[in-house]
Amino acid sequence: MAGFFSSWFSWLTSLLFSKTAEIAIVGLQASGKTSFVNVIGSGQWSEDVVPTVGYIFKTVRKGNVNLKIWDVAGQPKFRTMWERYCHGADAIVFVLDSADPEKFNTARFELHQLLSQSALSGVPLLVLGNKNDLEGHVPVKDLIRDLQLDKIADRPVSCYSCSMKSQHNLDIVLQWLAGRSH
Amino acid sequence: MSFAMAFSKKEDESGLSSYYNNKTTIIQEARVFNESPISPRKCRQLLTRIVYLLYVGETFSTQESTTLFFGTTKLFQHKDSALRQAVYLAIKELATTAEDVIMVTSSIMKDMQPNSEVIYRPNAIRALCRIIDPSMAQGVERFFKAAIVDKNPSISSAALVSSYHLFPHAKDVVKRWVNEAQEAVNAKSQGYFGSVSSGSSSFFGGGSSQNATQTIPSSSNITQYHALGLLYLMRQQDRMAITKMIQQLGGGKSGAGTTLKNAMALCMLIRYAAKVIEEDPNVQRQMVELLEGWLRHKSDMVNFEAARVICEMKNVTAAQLTKSIAVLQLFLSSPKPVLKFAATRTLAALALSHPASVAACNVDLENLITDTNRSVATYAITTLLKTGNEASVDRLIKQITGFMSEISDEFKVIIVDAIRSLCLKFPAKHAAMLTFLSGVLRDEGGYDFKRAVVEAIFDMIKFIGECKEQALSHLCEFIEDCEFTKLSVRILHLLGIEGPKSSQPAKYIRFIYNRVVLENAPVRAAAVASMAKFGVSSSDPKLNHSIGVLLNRCLDDVDDEVRDRATMYLKVFKAQNLVEPYVKEDSVLSLTALEAKLVSYVKDGSASAQPFDVSSIPKISRAQAAAESARPSTLDTIGVPAPKKTSAAPPPPTAAETQSAYADQLAAVPAFANYGPILNSSARPLPLTESETEYQVTCVKHIFKEHIVFQFNVSNTLPDTVLEQVTMAMQTEDEGLSQEFVLPINSLSAASSPGVAYVSFVRDEPEDYATATFQCTLQFVSKELDPSTGEPEAEGYEDEYQIEEVELSAGGDYIIPSYAAFGAEWDRMKAGPSVTETFGLGASVESLKAACDSIIEVLNMEPLGGTEIPTSSSVHTLQLSGLVTGGGGKVLARCRMTFSQGVGVTLELGVRAEKQDVCQLVVNAVGG
Question: Do B218 and B166 share a structural domain?
């Protein structure tokens, strides 16, 4: 009986005091979007992640914050669909492979293409320079320059360098995400 | 459910359903999909409206349905199971029009996982097969295999049905699931509560009360039905495998050992068995044993299906029928209308071919005549009409007349058809039946019904002489008030043919001329033609005069066609020599041949320099033309719910169709481009090998003005060899033809068979009809295929293959059958070239019939006036007519034959043609 009440109580408190945030995660293919969701969801990092088809929806609970995550596929044929899932999100997370500077141009194009949609104006943006455990990754400063993040004026923009594998900087990322909840 | 009620209530109260269920409104309201948090109730309501709109035929543009589709995909974040089911429904409906539906794959796959809630999984599986494209089938293979053998029947059924739909797109992948399907078909019956999922513990924990919804597995074993369907689809091409499957699942002679518990599955199995029997008569005996076992099954459905299949079998014997008729007889006295209907319908069909066997049920059928269900009564009566004796006809007809007004047109047609066959069976009863038919002709009814009645009367006129005049007067009365132009025209045509032969032709004229006054243009034109036929057929000058007057009045008609016909017939009246070719002409051009020739004439640009030559078209008699046209023969199709089995296979191409197909094929070969039009091609490919051999060859001969082309269709049936440089070596000792070139087949494998090789000859004297016999040898380089790579080996060996001889002869190559009025033509050509010669056909020809058959075959000419069947056993004259290809004109042959025991048949062959060498050709063909 006691167990029943305690579970009922925790359910009630969660109902009363929890906050939610809807997050859309986009980025080029193989940048680590699904890994990011896996790591913040279950703490598991795995070498082989199957390329996402379409999107994956996941809810992750951190403290009293409920994160609803739309992890959208990054292959070219899915990029036109990003906008649909960023629509109505509380934050857009753009994941980037910071160890692969050759793709920065494409990434910049796709990112600015997405942000130019009028329906998405004002939605906070978080750019993650992933894979900073690898040799030769590009530091945050250069990322901001290469992606022309300084030119985005209509929304709050943050850019962190992090690694899913080593879980470096993950805490501040989560903090940032929790800050978007309401 | 609560929603559905609320919805209908709202609709009733507001009366705004047109606004409420309006496409634009719905697309606007689709915003609720993006709301956060999601309101399951609102969303479900909207999804229902979308699905409703689609079901009532509204269409969404690609853009609209894509927007809606992506809206619905957002709803996957909510766990409400009722909402999720509505989402799946909407996805399935939108998937056909929306773009990028593949986006939702991973959400659906998540719901398919074994750890997902049971209620989602069948829905997810069914939606998935609408979403994925064939290339992804491989990726879901694992899920499907597991789902097919899932313990829960709804999941298993969903997976089986989805595989069934996937099969046409991803054959190879789905075929690998055969073991799973087999397992599903054999699955033991599920207990009622065996696999209720455990999910009730999360009643409060998940914050949602929807989890309480449980799926209770059905006990119907419907999974077996689905699995059987899939298995059949996979094995369809392999008759042996199907036979084996039927035997395995059939459960032995008594049918008791079967694992199939679902009645529908068994019915399906019975239908497969019927198909196997139809395709392979060798298995008929063992299949019938199985079917007889099923006659004793505990389900009515299975009993009926087995009985029906036995009744519909080709060449079924009376002994085989007894058991199934006993079953159907039992159904006749069943209280269930469905059973009664099914049984009477089957018996009605069977009564056509086996009236004696069905007669056993007559007593029970009598009781059904007054059945309140008119459909049952109709079938009972039509069956009785076919099985009954002459004495009962009057009573039955009276009975039918009683409720004719209560049944639908469709059943009226069935009854009329039954009457039609009946009057041919009992001509003595024609008076009663004609009264009945003329009675129903006056009733209300649609075109199909009226046509059936008119055709029945037509048949009576044709086959029963005594009733002709009375029937004609009924028809005259009918056209006085007939709303169907087509029927009026047909009746007027018939009046024109039959009327003049009657004792008082004049009495029909009034009816016909009334039509000229009162009807629309097509009927007026038909009436004019009909009247004119009276005029030319009658020798009564008074009648002729009045018809002339009437036709003169028609010259003022407003319609061109009517005026033209009247003018033409008036002209014909004045010049009696025009009567024969224009009014009484008994032959018509063969329409198929005419079409083929015209098509090639139009296609060939250079041909238009000369006018189209109608005389090269073979003619056929009116009787043949009638037989060729589509009207089903009177006796075959009576009163049966016609099983449309034949229509599944396309009809075999007519000679004319194959001709034009050849023309297309040849036109594609540049070497034949300057040969000009084809004068004639063989009517059908001539096989030069046995049908079982490893290489199969058929030959088609094409006659051109100056060339002759032999087309060899070569098939290589060996799957592991490829033939290269396939040529045909043709040698002849006859003169008149010299070989020009050979077109080989470069490479011929089993997959690319049949290939076509050509051999072309030049006609040394294009005017001559060169005949020859060719020895043919197939020459090729044979290479074996490497089984691992499928590539042919580098070095092959040369090989030869002897095939049968090819003959170039008069009949079939130079002469084609054509209809003519023999007597008149024979006299007309008296002045032309002719040859008469006498042959002894030798003792090997045993009768005049055999002589006729072989002469017709050798000459390939049209026998005229039924002379192909000798009436006397000692003396006979066979009349033949044909056309010679390439402008050779008509050729007629008169074969006077005598037969005496010991000597055999002596033949005096007289040939008249437009050219001397044609006569010689014919005589040589018989003599040689």
Answer: yes
